[in-house]
Structures are given as C-alpha cells and as structure tokens.
Specification:
By secondary structure, this protein is an alpha/beta fold. The chain has one domain: Rossmann fold, CATH 3.40.50.1010. It contains 6 helices and 8 strands; from the N terminus they run βααβαβββαβαβαβ. The strands form 2 sheets. Strands 3-2-1-6-7-8 form a 6-stranded parallel β-sheet, with helices on both faces. The chain has a two-stranded antiparallel sheet with strand order 4-5. The two termini are about 15 Å apart. The relative contact order is 0.21.
Length: about 180
C-alpha cells in the first residue's frame, strides 16, 4: 500500500533553505537517517523551486569534507563557514567541546538577496530564531513554509497562526 503524501502548493518561484545541522538532528527523533540526495530529488520535482540552499559548517574532519563535496555534487548551493568548538566541560582534566555553527544570519542575508525574485520561501528548520524573518516575509506577502519533525519546532514558530504553513517532513516524502 503506497503512502499518500501532502503536495506543496507553491505561489510562484520558490527558494529552499536547509539548515542541515537542524535537519540532521531530526534523525534521532525519526530513528532513521535523512538522505540529502533523496531530499534534493524530491525538491526538484517542483518546477517552481529555482534555488536549493544547503547550510552546513566546515571543519577539517575528512568525513565532513567528503559530505560537503558529495552534497555539492548533488546540486545544492552550499553555504558554509568554519565550525567553532565551544568548551562545555572539563572532566578529570579532559576538555569536552561542542561543535557549533549557526547560519541564522547567513540565511537572513540570502533571503534578502532573493526577496524580489522569490514568492515562496521553504525552510527546513524548526528553529524559533527565524520567527522575526518569517513575520517579515509574511508581512511582505510572501509564502512561508516551514518543514520540521515532531519535537523540533520552536515554540515561537508553533505560536504563529497566520500566514505560515507548517508541514511535518514525514508527510511530504519518503526519507
């Protein structure tokens, strides 16, 4: 039996913004991996999608470099910057660092760059920090679609009731 998925109804040219660190974090909740190639191929089924931007931090680890290279070959427009390592604890003399690389500002700048050529903005992130950007886009008459997974939608976005479309990833496609 084939699963029925929702189809996005886009209002003209669309740009997609994927915050991969957030999307990758969804895998624990979903209990399965998200395939970047499958995601890209799915998004390209929409003729309105003119640009798919993929935000991910860059570090020296060979797996990270290969992942970015493979993802670029898929067709994504890659936006990257160096990862920061934040000291979070020191236990018995051993320092523990957390990988950190936020792309909120880069995504906002990119939204500004495509504002006049894009009618629909699709964000793959449940990050509540995007609320002011979403509100501005809605005020400007733009279509805003937020794709997320359960447990990964900021309360600021959950509270938004008008002008925004919130869609669970599993309702759109096979992962």
């Amino acid at each position: 039996m084939k699963t029925q998925y929702k189809k996005l109804i886009l209002r003209g040219k669309a740009t997609v913004f994927i915050d991969w660190a957030n999307v990758y974090g969804w895998e624990k909740t979903l209990k399965r991996s998200i395939n970047p190639k499958k995601l890209y191929d799915y998004l390209k089924t929409y003729t309105e999608v003119i640009d798919i931007r993929f935000y991910f931090g860059e570090d020296a680890h060979p797996k990270s470099k290969k992942f970015l290279s493979d993802t670029a070959k898929t067709g994504y427009k890659i936006i990257t910057k160096p990862v920061k390592y934040i000291l979070v604890a020191e236990i018995s003399g051993q320092k523990i660092y957390r990988r950190k690389c936020d792309f909120d500002m880069e995504a906002c700048i990119d939204v500004h760059k495509v504002l006049n050529s894009t009618a629909s903005f699709i964000f793959f992130t449940g990050d509540g920090d995007y609320e002011p950007l979403y509100k501005l886009l809605i005020e400007l008459g733009k279509q805003v679609i937020v794709v997320y997974t359960p447990g990964h939608l900021g309360r600021e976005i959950q509270a938004m009731k008008k002008g925004i479309f919130k869609v669970e990833l599993e309702n759109l496609m096979d992962l």
